[in-house]
Design a protein that fits this description.
Blueprint: H1 10-22, H2 25-31, H3 43-54, H4 61-70, H5 77-86, E1 93-96, E2 104-107, H6 112-123, H7 129-134, H8 136-155, H9 162-177
Antiparallel strand pairs: 1-2
Helix pairs in contact: 1-4, 8-9
Length: 181
């Protein structure tokens, strides 16, 4: 960043992200119908959103927050960070931007929007975040997603990396058995 450039505030980033999302006709239909906002996302909405973000190999935190704000759901960057700290959403991975000195950004897996939607749906009832974190079904979903992620990593490896594959298999077995890594 050059000395003359100011760092953008969270609100500026969120506003730019919302404008960017609304430029896509398919997403605009997801966020608004007859000028109204809907609230939480349906399964068909989630599939449209994930299809759009597929081209980027993930979503940024601003895109996750903007998705829910545009739907009229009370959700902020601070809430999203809290979900991350509690382990309710997966951690982001740093991805470098093309070009010299462009830096990197954090990308969350495509399923992050669906997970946040699930959490918001659960806590709209009587369930608290602490109860949800300890829920056996939730823990099973987390383990399954971790195994799928590990298997995706395995397919990218060459034959020379078989030792890494064995280590990942051991980790996957540990996760499935319920022991911590």
């Amino acid at each position: 960043m050059s000395p003359r450039q100011k760092k953008k505030s969270e609100k500026q980033i969120l506003d730019e992200t919302m404008a960017e999302l609304l430029e896509t006709p398919a997403l605009k239909r997801v966020f608004f119908s007859n000028g109204r906002r809907y609230g939480l996302l349906t399964q068909s909405d989630l599939s449209i959103i994930e299809t759009y973000f597929w081209q980027f190999n993930g979503v940024t935190s601003a895109q996750v927050v903007a998705t829910f704000v545009l739907r009229g759901v009370k959700f902020s960057s601070a809430t999203f960070r809290k979900y991350g700290q509690m382990g309710l959403v997966e951690k982001s991975t740093r991805v470098g931007l093309k070009g010299k000195h462009r830096g990197s950004r954090g990308l969350f897996p495509l399923g992050t929007i669906a997970r946040v939607n699930f959490v918001k749906n659960k806590i709209s009832g009587d369930t608290t975040l602490e109860e949800l974190k300890g829920d056996k079904v939730w823990l099973s979903v987390n383990k399954l997603e971790e195994v799928v992620r590990l298997l995706g990593d395995v397919t990218e490896l060459s034959k020379a990396d078989m030792r890494k594959v064995k280590a990942m298999q051991k980790t996957a077995e540990t996760i499935i058995s319920g022991n911590s890594v």
